[in-house]
């Protein structure tokens, strides 16, 4: 049973993964959905509705991982910008070096907050969900080939491979 009086666990998980990544000398990155209200990021650095932000201590200043928003300042194209991100907009937090991290299910928290009638609804556990690291040029489209059992969930791209991306594969 889902209780709408509970606070979101997302900000707590973001803080926990951030601390774990830093403790293990890894570089934490956030993948942000820029279409969520109150996201304040440099849109010129976004692609396909998302932006990836390096939030390591060497990349940002005054980082605050609060329950209601994530705040920091960082340089983009040589200009210092204030960044404000609601935790609901975080798609994933991961380490640049090895992809270790967590992908968050999108939309679940908005559904709970806006539809009290769903409070007794339980979400079935999705089986065979994995996090897949795909290296590719960020301007290319990704081609997920998993229509037949013969290709074993093979992921392919259209051009050279030089960009790290995360996708939730179900």
Automatic annotation (TrEMBL):
GO CC, any one term: cytosol
Gene Ontology biological process: positive regulation of protein catabolic process
SUPFAM superfamilies named among the record's database cross-references: SspB-like
Transmembrane parts of this sequence: none
Name under which the protein is recorded: Stringent starvation protein B
Organism of derivation: Candidatus Erwinia haradaeae
Lineage of the species this protein comes from: Bacteria, Pseudomonadati, Pseudomonadota, Gammaproteobacteria, Enterobacterales
